[in-house]
Amino acid sequence: LEGRDRIVRCLVRDPSKLTSTSPTTESLAGDVMDPATLKNALEGVETAYYLIHLMGSGDDFEEKDRIAAQNFAAAAKNGGVRRIIYLGGLGDENDPNLSRHLRSRHEVGQILRESGIQTIEFRASVVIGDGSLSFDLIRSLTERLPVMLCPRWLATDTQPISVADVLSYLLAALDLPEGESEIFEIGGHDVVTYGRLIQEYAQQSGLRRWLISVPFLTPYLSSLWLGLVTPASASVARHLIEGLKNPTIVRTDKAEKSFNIKPHGITEAVRLAIRKADR
Is residue 48 within 8 Å of residue 85, measured between CB atoms? Predict the structure, then answer.
């Protein structure tokens, strides 16, 4: 955004942790759970990016996500915001077995749209890159376990996307014409299983890993297992794994037709992520 000569204002709980390359970038302390802190942050803003997820805040994350989105939407409306750009999650919302995590992602988008502000919602699967919790789980798991007993969710189809491509979509949304709210499903070039994603990361990292499929490792037990071998807590891992049972693939070509973006395939996406992490 700074490279596009935009004046950027960041809402953060701790401004001291924010780094910037532009003297025009502002940082304001605030919290979406405290409506009083949002007024100044959103006044005069033309476009607001909503990149907030409270799944790590406890088992009641759905209610917290709901309140956060409602607070933000109300403050954006009062502040005269003309467009909200939101990064959510893929998954068939008509699936009665859709996980709590993915259903909450969709609900947040709905709340933002109901504000009456044009909302551009991007729905993505695993984002391949540093800072993505799903990718960090896969990376830590692959690096720490030479032999993995793999439950059935590792055979679920997913369409991971490079963080570089996600950023391209988020930036390109600035140039969309004003009008109705839109939902765009975005993904990389390849549809793979989670097991294939682990194997790709292992191969490019020079690691020999064996995946042994077993039918008895339930999602709950999987989350406890992941909690032992990754930086994420077992509760966060459990919610993520509940979502892994649901296919997260792009079902429409709407994003392809609307944006001049050619997403990377899994090999290139993983290569870029590893190269950045090694810097």
Answer: yes
pLDDT at 244 > cutoff 90 = no
DSSP string, 253-277: SHHHHH-------HHHHHHHHHHHH
Cα–Cα dist 117/73, whole Å: 8
Q: pLDDT (tens digit, 9 = 90+) per residue, 110-147?
A: 999 999 999 999 999 999 998 888 888 888 889 888 98
Separation of alpha carbons 251 and 90, rounded Å: 9
Distance (Å, whole) CA 93 – CA 123: 12
- Give the side-chain half-sphere CA count within 13 A for 137: 25
Separation CA 74–CA 115 (nearest Å): 7
Q: Which amino acid type is present at position 278?
A: D
Half-sphere exposure of 182 (CA within 13 A, CB side): 19
Q: CA 216 to CA 229: how far, in whole Å?
A: 19
pLDDT at 56: 67
Fill in the amino acid letter for 8: V
Cα(first)–Cα(last) distance of the chain, in Å? 23
Residues 6+ apart with CB under 8 A from 41: 9, 11, 28, 30, 75
pLDDT greater than 90 at residue 213:
no
Cα–Cα dist 31/38, whole Å? 7
Distance, in Å, from the CA atom of 95 to the CA atom of 87, rounded to the nearest integer, reads 20
Is residue 230 within 8 Å of residue 141, measured between CB atoms? yes
pLDDT in tens, 52-82: 988 766 678 999 999 999 999 999 999 999 9
State the pLDDT at residue 232: 67
H-assigned helices in 145-231: 163-172, 194-204, 219-229
